[in-house]
Amino acid sequence: MNFLKSLSEWKQTRVEKVIADMESLGKCPDCRGRGFTSTLSSVYIPTYDAVFDCPGCNGSGQFTDWNGNDLGDHL
Length: 75
Hints:
Radius of gyration: 15 Å
Low-confidence stretches: none
Strand order of the largest sheet: 1-2
Mean pLDDT: 80
Shape: elongated
Strand content: 5-15%
């Protein structure tokens, strides 16, 4: 159980670091400031590019928009 607790703490620390880094850059942590997310199919099938507005920042790529949304858990 100690291993699982350590793993959980490591993951939480990593998530908090990503959020702090993206905040300092003013970028949405979910999409890394791009404003969109793409599906895995767009990686493997180059002719089909499924791109969607980021649900965290509503497509703006801004940290302030991401921080203002109340979507529950981010990342």
